[in-house]
Design goal:
The chain is 47% helix and 9% strand. By secondary structure, the protein is α/β, with parallel strands linked by helices.
């Protein structure tokens, strides 16, 4: 009802108080999100007389007394009480009766609202989204893309504060998290936080020790494993020594999800890739900032694994597959979820606005993600021509569609507004 009042979605011909006086709303007022009347500084005309004050909205008129407003002077400034059910008169603390209006809404609005809110479809407006003007969708998609970017920047800021302004630590944790590719994000971030760069840099001259620290801290080493190969036994031995030296505690191996994942997407090779970035000292943030264009950024993540991981997907039997740690599409996802937010956050925090533009340009140049969310919107008639748009669609789905916040969505609002005014 607040939404209907705020956006003037009532039937204007039926605006009459319960004692027969005609109402014209000149200004619905400002929505109040704190204690007190629902709308401040409204302006309404009742039978030709203009009133300026506050508006209170209830489902039932009797809620006025039930909520204690009749004895609360903060509500004496209410000039109109708007309700769905008129089941009682309402009064100010001095006994004056307050004009009361039953809010009249088009039956089509109620029908559209019910269809959106109670739909069992993944996308409640799938059947009608194609009727929304392209300009409305374009503006909303652009705003959602920035919403999603700002949410990611918020995470970067939190990590930056945690690591006392170390951008390399921020990059390390962010890259590690996104190597989980959704399925193992939380596990990878836990691994990075549990194995900080200051510890890994003590052994940056030994790839074996870096790998031992990472695999050991990940809980993926079991010294009692029967039939283990030489490499695995060396990792176990190194980790046992380092864990004792630094009082380390590994994660639970159950934190990693392996079920229904293709072998090339197992976390082992991603951990090995992280180890190669750390060998010789982790300076990936500096290299990202220095990179000139998408091609150079891609080269940073086109890591060819060496040694054991050049032909293994996990511990055990070797596999004759390409040695690149990440496919081209996987690198796209890393650029979208890691590099663009880091550019944007660094630019925002340091005042280097060229990097903010660089983040947007990168997302606009990358192909859209190919996932179930994007496919659902495209099937409904929405266009998606870049990663900037696919990021916006993911934000739309997760923050609005799944939460059924259709009245806060520009697309939902447009559909509801049209139904209210038919």
């Amino acid at each position: 009802m607040q939404y209907i009042w705020q956006h003037r979605l009532w039937r204007a011909d039926d605006m009459v108080t319960n004692d027969g006086r005609h109402v014209r709303v000149l200004d619905p007022g400002l929505l109040n999100t704190d204690a007190g009347p629902d709308f401040f500084n409204a302006k309404v005309e009742i039978d030709g007389q203009t009133w300026v004050g506050n508006i209170e909205i209830h489902v039932r008129a009797s809620d006025w007394k039930r909520h204690g407003h009749d004895s609360n002077s903060a509500y004496d400034s209410v000039v109109l009480h708007v309700v769905d059910k008129d089941d009682a008169p309402v009064y100010r603390t001095n006994g004056e009766r307050i004009p009361q209006l039953v809010l009249q809404v088009s039956p089509l609005f109620n029908m559209s609202y019910d269809q959106l809110m109670n739909s069992h479809q993944e996308l409640p407006c799938a059947a009608t989204i194609a009727t929304v003007p392209r300009l409305t969708i374009t503006e909303w998609v652009e705003r959602l893309a920035f919403e999603r970017l700002h949410n990611k920047v918020g995470r970067v800021r939190e990590i930056l504060e945690l690591y006392h302004g170390s951008w390399e630590e921020v990059c390390y944790v962010t890259v590690a998290r996104n190597l989980g590719f959704g399925i193992n994000n939380e596990a990878f971030e836990r691994l990075a936080r549990r194995t900080p760069l200051r510890l890994l840099h003590k052994h940056s001259d030994s790839l074996l020790q870096i790998e031992a620290l990472l695999f050991g801290q990940a809980g993926l080493l079991d010294p009692s494993a029967a039939g283990a190969d030489d490499y695995y036994r060396h990792l176990c031995s190194e980790y046992a020594f380092l864990a004792n030296k630094f009082s380390l505690r590994p994660m639970e191996s159950e934190a990693w999800k392996m079920f229904r994942i293709r072998p090339q997407n197992f976390p082992y090779r991603r951990i090995a890739m992280l180890a190669q970035h750390i060998e010789g000292g982790f300076n990936l943030m500096s290299r990202i900032l220095d990179a000139n264009g998408e091609k150079e950024l891609r080269q940073l993540f086109q890591v060819e694994l060496t040694g054991y991981w050049s032909n293994h997907f996990s511990f055990g039997k070797p596999n004759e597959r390409p040695t690149l740690a990440l496919s081209g599409k996987s690198i796209d996802i890393v650029l979208i979820n890691t590099v663009a937010p880091l550019y944007y956050a660094y630019g925002e925090i340091t005042g280097n606005y060229a990097l903010i533009d660089k983040a947007i340009s990168l997302l606009e140049s990358l192909k859209p993600e190919s996932n179930s969310i994007v496919k659902t919107f495209v099937a409904a008639g929405m266009e998606c021509d870049s990663a900037l748009t696919s990021q916006a669609l993911i934000e739309l789905r997760r923050s609005y569609c799944d939460a059924r916040k259709c009245i806060y969505c520009k697309i939902g609002h447009r559909l509801l507004s049209e139904s209210a005014h038919r």
